[in-house]
């Protein structure tokens, strides 16, 4: 079994088309088909069904696909690790983070890292914690900033707590302040129009769970947005939103920030990587900067 064969197999599996896959990996279609047949012969099983012109994975192909992706990702990581110079003058880091952390924490941290190592390429993947955990497991990321606790049945990951962050309520500065006496209780959100994040967002689940714990279902005026969209809808006066304090600090004067009354809501951010593979050197350096500056900038 050769890396080239696995590359061709993954390309066909993703394109579901031999000609398009061949174009993607810059090889002729007959050569690609020949390598796929050689791989199938070695494994003793067909990887694709080709009924009526449709290309689908067989059961054997479905079983091989996640393993092939991980093997190729690990090989790519090893190649970059070997190619890095001793002084970290070149290399790359693949970092995953939730949208709120991309808005709140990462701009200053990545600026500091880039100043130290301007030759290191930073590849950022934005997504929810569940998606980032899956990306880590398949070897598509070196590090990921995720919200604890990790999803049930998570793969073997090492997660180091980075910071504890308070959540606050943001509202349009042009409208009335929510709550009383400078704070908002969760109970005050009953009947309050909320601008809500899309399904799968950690902040959505945390806010909805807090409202239900107080005995009511939250009322949404707009739902389904990412962080920037949610803040924009709040600025427009469509409702209030519960967001991390670091995001609120960057939100500008058009938004009013009101803390939640004790005990409030907090979330724990962790820096995670696969337990079975040490992050590349450049990723370890970014890990150091994140732990140093992230802990210094947290609320807890």
Automatic annotation (TrEMBL):
UniProt keyword annotations, A-Z: DNA-binding, Transcription, Transcription regulation
GO molecular function: DNA binding; DNA-binding transcription factor activity
Entry's Gene Ontology cellular component terms: protein-DNA complex
SUPFAM superfamilies: Periplasmic binding protein-like II, Winged helix' DNA-binding domain
Tagged with keyword Transcription: yes
Domain of life: Bacteria
Residue ranges constituting the HTH lysR-type domain according to the UniProt record: 1-58
Pfam (any one): HTH_1
UniProt cross-references to PANTHER family, sorted A to Z: LYSR SUBSTRATE-BINDING (PTHR30346:SF29), TRANSCRIPTIONAL DUAL REGULATOR HCAR-RELATED (PTHR30346)
Similarity field: Belongs to the LysR transcriptional regulatory family.
The protein's name in its UniProt record: DNA-binding transcriptional LysR family regulator
Species for this entry: Streptomyces fulvorobeus
């Amino acid at each position: 079994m050769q890396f080239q064969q696995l590359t061709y197999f993954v390309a066909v599996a993703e394109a579901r088309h031999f000609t398009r896959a061949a174009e993607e990996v810059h090889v002729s279609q007959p050569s690609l088909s020949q390598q796929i047949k050689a791989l199938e012969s070695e494994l003793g099983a067909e990887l694709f069904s080709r009924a009526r012109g449709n290309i689908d994975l067989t059961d054997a192909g479905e079983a091989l696909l996640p393993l092939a992706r991980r093997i190729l990702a690990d090989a790519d990581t090893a190649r970059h690790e070997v190619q890095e110079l001793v002084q970290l003058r070149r290399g790359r880091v693949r970092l995953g983070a939730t949208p709120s952390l991309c808005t709140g924490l990462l701009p200053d941290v990545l600026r500091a890292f880039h100043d130290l190592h301007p030759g290191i390429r930073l590849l950022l993947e934005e997504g929810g914690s569940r998606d980032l955990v899956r990306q880590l497991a398949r070897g598509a990321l070196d590090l990921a900033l995720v919200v604890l606790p990790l999803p049930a049945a998570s793969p073997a990951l090492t997660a180091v707590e980075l910071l504890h962050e308070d959540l606050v309520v943001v509202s349009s500065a042009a409208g009335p302040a929510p709550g009383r006496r400078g704070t908002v209780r969760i109970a005050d959100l009953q009947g309050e129009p909320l601008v809500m994040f899309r399904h799968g967002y950690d902040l959505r689940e945390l806010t909805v769970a807090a409202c239900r714990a107080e005995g009511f279902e939250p009322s949404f005026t707009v739902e389904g947005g990412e962080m920037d969209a949610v803040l924009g809808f709040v600025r427009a006066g469509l409702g209030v939103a519960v967001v991390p304090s670091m995001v609120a600090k960057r939100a500008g004067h058009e938004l009013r920030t009101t803390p939640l009354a004790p005990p409030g809501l907090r979330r724990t951010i962790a820096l995670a990587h696969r337990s079975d593979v040490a992050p590349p050197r450049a990723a370890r350096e970014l890990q150091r900067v994140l732990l140093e500056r992230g802990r210094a900038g947290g609320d807890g």
